[in-house]
């Protein structure tokens, strides 16, 4: 049952990155859109993320619950050493959700308040995935120093370093890339399709550049990222698969008939990136500067707690997944009906 729980943990993390990441990416795309096109971008983004913008955070909640119940020592260590970036990320999620709700459902929409909500939405959309990446980079790279004697050493420089920040910026670029790809499929006008294709290419180039910066930072921070990825057969295969899918995506991205395929390829590419890093670190979930680590296979709750958690996840998925699928289907059907009427 332990492996069932671990499978749900990684599935929740992956789905949150693919769905929630694209959700955040919509705000990132809007942030880097000219004033002339911002309103068009907002309209398309709302059509895409409106139905499930809040449901996406379900995957984050599941991740937190699994860690809290199934791996309490890992959960507590992360919350202690990374409490500052965690707090900023949670504040970003709250601010973004609030701004999204008010700017779309506010009864009185005046220019001043809408501008305020728009600024909160786009900047929190940038900050939140950035600190999500910082947390992941810090936990997996051995930046946390459990022997630190100062507050800064233990709770600041464990995440405020070149490598972790580079991972955060790389995460932002990936989220923007996913959003642009997903938004292409929501467009009906050629002008908007071309705009989002251009945004997708720009975000993809940014991801490649920032990915190179992650490797450069890992060299100077002695993280040995190259050994993680290129020293493991499965990780290397995942990187090759991600590269090939990227080439294919660029080849078919301008074809209107391949809207669904480019979404699949983008999701596949990002999933391969996650696998390339996650596989070589497994089962370690938190790695410390002194070389010690916390493992999902040893630092878990009692067997009874794991069994109960596993059963709860299996039973819960029978209700949650069909309901989430129907939610998305019903909203898309509604939107298509409205479009047809117009």
From TrEMBL:
It is a multi-pass membrane protein. GO terms for molecular function: oxidoreductase activity. Its EC number is 1.10.3.-. Keywords: Cell membrane, Membrane, Oxidoreductase, Transmembrane, Transmembrane helix. The keyword Disulfide bond does not apply. The keyword Cell membrane applies. Belongs to the cytochrome ubiquinol oxidase subunit 2 family. This is Cytochrome d ubiquinol oxidase subunit II. It comes from Mucilaginibacter lappiensis.
């Amino acid at each position: 049952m332990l492996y069932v729980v671990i499978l749900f943990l990684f599935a929740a993390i992956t789905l949150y990155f693919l769905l929630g990441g694209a959700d955040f990416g919509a705000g990132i795309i809007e942030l880097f859109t000219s004033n002339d096109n911002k309103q068009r971008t907002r309209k398309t983004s709302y059509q895409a993320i409106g139905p499930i913008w809040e449901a996406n955070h379900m995957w984050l909640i599941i991740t937190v619950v699994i860690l809290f119940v199934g791996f309490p020592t890992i959960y507590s260590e992360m919350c202690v050493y990374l409490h500052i970036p965690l707090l900023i990320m949670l504040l970003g999620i709250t601010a973004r959700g609030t701004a999204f709700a008010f700017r779309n459902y506010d009864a009185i929409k005046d220019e001043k308040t809408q501008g305020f909500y728009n600024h909160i939405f786009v900047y929190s959309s940038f900050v939140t995935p950035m600190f999500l990446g910082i947390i992941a980079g810090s936990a997996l790279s051995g930046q946390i120093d459990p022997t630190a004697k100062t507050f800064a050493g233990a709770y600041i420089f464990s995440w405020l370093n070149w490598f972790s920040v580079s991972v955060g910026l790389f995460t932002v670029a990936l989220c923007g890339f996913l959003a642009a790809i997903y938004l292409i499929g929501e467009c009906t006008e050629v002008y908007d399709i071309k705009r989002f294709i251009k945004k997708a290419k720009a975000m993809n180039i940014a991801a490649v550049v920032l990915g190179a910066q992650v490797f450069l930072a890992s060299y100077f921070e002695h993280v040995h990222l190259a050994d993680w990825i290129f020293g493991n057969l499965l990780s290397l295969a995942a990187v090759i698969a991600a590269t090939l899918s990227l080439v294919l995506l660029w080849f078919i991205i301008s074809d209107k008939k391949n809207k669904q395929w480019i979404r699949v390829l983008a999701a596949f590419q990002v999933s391969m990136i996650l696998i390339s890093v996650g596989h070589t670190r497994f089962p370690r979930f938190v790695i410390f500067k002194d070389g010690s680590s916390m493992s999902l296979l040893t630092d878990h709750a009692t067997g009874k707690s794991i069994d109960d958690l596993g059963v709860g996840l299996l039973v819960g998925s029978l209700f949650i997944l069909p309901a989430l699928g129907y939610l998305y289907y019903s909203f898309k059907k509604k939107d298509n009906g409205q479009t047809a009427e117009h």
